[in-house]
Specification:
Elements lengths: L9 H6 L7 E4 L3 E5 L7 E7 L7 H7 L1 H18 L5 E3 L14 E6 L10 H4 L2
Antiparallel strand pairs: 1-2, 2-3, 3-5, 4-5
Bound molecules: adenosine monophosphate.
Length: about 120
């Protein structure tokens, strides 16, 4: 259950292996999987196994070391799957496009440097 007493998030259900996902990285505290609706040639969701933080502001205040670990995993994924320059997005709040209230980053990029990410991908997450 989440701290508010609501149902587990879809990401908690992926972490529990209750629903399938293509997991691309996992540590003791972090898990990353392919976004089911990719908005870029590389689009990976990186999230905490701990569901208590709803967004990056809460995570930064409550456990900055865990935020740093999440960013390190995101960088590792980008190093493996993109040309090294990438977008790291934390939607924060429903009006900003957040639909899953379990802190997560979107790693977005392209394998080839010639493939530029359109600015429109920011608005359609
Ligand atoms: P946000 O809208 O920033 O909260 O991001 C949530 C993301 O989770 C969206 O980009 C969705 O496409 C993605 N998503 C939702 N359900 C799944 C799933 N079952 N497997 C993988 N990604 C998912």
């Amino acid at each position: 259950m989440s701290p508010s007493g609501s149902q587990p998030s879809i990401f908690s259900r992926i972490i529990a292996r209750e629903i399938p996902a293509t997991i691309v990285a996992e540590t003791e505290h972090i898990i990353a999987f392919l976004d089911i609706a990719p908005k870029a040639p590389v689009h990976v969701v990186v999230t905490t196994k701990d569901p208590q933080y709803q967004n990056v502001v809460e995570l930064a205040a409550g456990n900055p070391a865990l935020l740093a670990e999440l960013v390190a995993v995101a960088e590792q994924i980008a190093a493996e799957r993109t040309h090294g320059q990438f977008r790291l997005v934390f939607n924060t709040g429903a009006a900003a496009g957040q639909s899953v209230f379990h802190v997560h980053a979107h790693v977005m990029g392209s394998p080839e440097l010639t493939d530029q990410l359109g600015e429109d991908s920011l608005g359609t997450l």
